[in-house]
Design brief:
The chain is an alpha+beta fold. It has helices at 63-73, 81-96, 105-119, 121-131, 137-155, 161-168, and strands at residues 11-18, 24-31, 37-43, 50-52, 58-60, 102-104. The protein folds into two domains: 9-45, no CATH class; 47-141, no CATH class. 47% of the residues lie in helices and 19% in strands.
Length: 169
């Protein structure tokens, strides 16, 4: 295993654990050159699950590609990596649960956007701007207006106006 910090090829395994679902093995490793620790995951390589792109091409589902997109969208945002991993896990499960062993990227993208929208609206807009491939500023503004509309009902119950009127009586 290549060290992600210095590129050295030799390491030692410090700890190994099965995941909760026993679908993968988590290994904690230590580089024998720089001494830094990193984590690897081992999974069984089965028949690949596919995603169907907008143009009809089929491509193997790639967890890392999804995570990289989320990391870019969440750059400098307060979204914990554990939430991003959870979104990637949900997207992967969604593809795996398909009876045809494939899903449309539009379905996967919608799932990812709905989850990201819960955690961070700015990250959602960043992801949506790439994923939805807005043709012009009007499409982008339309999406922002929809986001603001859905945000308003969430904030209205939090207003203290009714409580203030009761407390002043």
């Amino acid at each position: 295993m290549k060290c992600p910090f210095c590129g050295f090829l030799e390491d030692k395994v410090v700890d190994s654990r099965e995941s909760k679902e026993a679908e993968s093995i988590r290994r904690r490793r230590e580089c024998l050159k720089c001494g830094k620790r990193f984590t690897t995951y081992e999974r069984i390589d089965e028949i690949p699950y596919m995603v169907v792109k907008k143009d009809g091409r089929r491509e193997k589902f790639d967890r890392q590609k999804v995570l990289n997109g989320l990391l870019r969208a969440c750059e400098k945002r307060p979204v914990p990596i554990s939430k991003l991993e959870q979104i990637v896990n949900e997207a992967e499960s969604f593809v795996i649960e398909s009876p045809e062993r494939e899903r449309k990227t539009s379905e996967v993208g919608e799932l990812i956007m709905s989850r990201l929208r819960r955690y961070d609206k700015v990250a959602y807009v960043r992801f949506a701007s790439v994923y939805l491939d807005f043709k012009d500023v009007q499409e982008f503004m339309s999406e922002l207006k929809d986001l603001v509309k859905t945000k308003e009902p969430e904030t209205k119950p939090a207003k203290a106006a009714p409580k203030e009127s009761r407390s002043t009586q």
